Amino acid sequence: MADLRAAIIGAGGHAEHHFRMIDDEPRMDLVAVADLDQDRLDRARAEHGVSSLYTDYRKMLDEVDLDVAYVVTFPGPLPEIVIDCLSAGLHTSVEKPPGVTSTDTRRMEQAERDSSAKAIVSLNRRYIPEVLAIRKQLQDRGGPVHVAATYNKPQMNERIRQTGHLISLDAIHHVDLLRWLAGDVVEVYAEGWSAPSHPTEMRHNALLRFANDCRGIMMSHYAVGYRIQRFEAHAEDFSAYVDLTKGVAYELYDDGQSVDTLDLDAVGGAGFDETRHFVDCILNDTEPWSPLADVVKTMELCEAIESNHKGPLP
Questions:
Q1: What's the pLDDT band for 166 if we cut at 50, 70, 90?
Q2: Picking from 129-138, 162-171, 292-301, 302-311, which range would have the lowest pLDDT averaged per residue?
Q3: Which has the closest alpha carbon to 186: 160, 144, 227, 214?
Q4: pTM (two decimals)
Q5: Domain 125-312 belongs to what topology?
Q6: What's the CA gap between 51 and 166, in Å, rounded?
Q7: In whole numbers, what is the pLDDT of the chain averaged over residues?
Q8: Contact 221, 152 (CB under 8 A)
């Protein structure tokens, strides 16, 4: 019998990643799924053997004995569902973005403080084994001196197009990745401008200064030629160039020489993921690496970039 009984709320495309991670985690059993779409519930039964299926997540919380909830919904309804789960004492995985605004994120953070349960935000770049190994290399060499990220797409989800907040709702993955690599940002010089195809600001560049005096660049552009997700990170005598567009590809350089491999065993192995980490945190009573209290800072940085902030952050 597994240690933890889990449910997924929201069984759309983004949930597939969570289904897989839960299936692969021997200490966790998926025992219930809630979604408004009956076809998705039928698919969860057929593909994952889940028999407790609900169109009302509140009824599921009342009727099913649970330890963990994965909330994988659109950002608008997400905060209230997360707050309900935390109030019920369930350890909760929060899909990114954690709400539409940093105010939403703070509300969920307060709910976690009021609860006996833990919350983790599903910013999965933090948990990619190759990213963890590169981060360790940077730390072992005294910390990064420069980081940069590119997050481009030829088009966007229509819901995001209508809502705006392209950095907070989509490119947050790589804004957060820069913070994960280099720490807190203390100064931002951001510029956003509109694509001819849409009046919403769809192109953003930002220069960043971190508390450790590292410098960074964040670039995110929509209505361009292709979906590209890349980053680079540099420390003294070390450079990493990483492409996350399709899987993980990287180039590493150490004091002018090419390096072929990363030590993934030192960071949990090639199969490490956020669910394994979250289970470890629950069973060992430790804090997740992407808690709501920290991700509030990521959301605030996203908002600073979107607002074309120029200067020190509050």
A1: confident
A2: 162-171
A3: 214
A4: 0.96
A5: Dihydrodipicolinate Reductase; domain 2 (3.30.360)
A6: 37
A7: 96
A8: yes
- Sequential DSSP letters for 163-220: H--HIIIIIHHHHHHHHHHH--EEEEEEEEEEETTEEEEEEEEEEEEETTS-EEEEEE
Beta strand 238-243 with 249-254 is antiparallel
| Tens of pLDDT, residues 137-148 | 999 999 999 999
pLDDT tens profile 116-135? 999 999 999 999 999 999 99
- What gap in Å lies between CA 132 and CA 138, rounded to an integer? 10
The DSSP call for residue 266 is G
Evaluate the CA torsion angle 120, 122, 125, 131 in order and state its sign. Answer: positive
CATH number (3.40.50.1950, 3.40.50.720, 3.40.630.10, 2.60.40.10) of 4-122 reads 3.40.50.720
Please answer whether residues 171 and 220 qualify as being in contact, where contact means their C-beta atoms are separated by less than 8 angstroms.
yes
Is 250 strand, coil or helix?
strand
Give the start-to-end residue ranges of the domains of the chain: 4-122, 125-312
Strand partners, 32: 7, 52
Q: At what angle do helices 274-284 and 15-24 cross, to 10 degrees?
A: 60
Helices (H) and strands (E) in the chain, counts: 11, 15
SS3 251: strand
Q: Kindly report the backbone phi and psi dihedral angles of residue 262, in degrees, each rounded to the nearest multiple of 5, phi listed first.
A: -115, 150
Pick the closest to residue 99 from 87, 83, 86, 116 (CA basis).
83
Pick the closest to residue 104 from 314, 299, 302, 306 (CA basis). 299
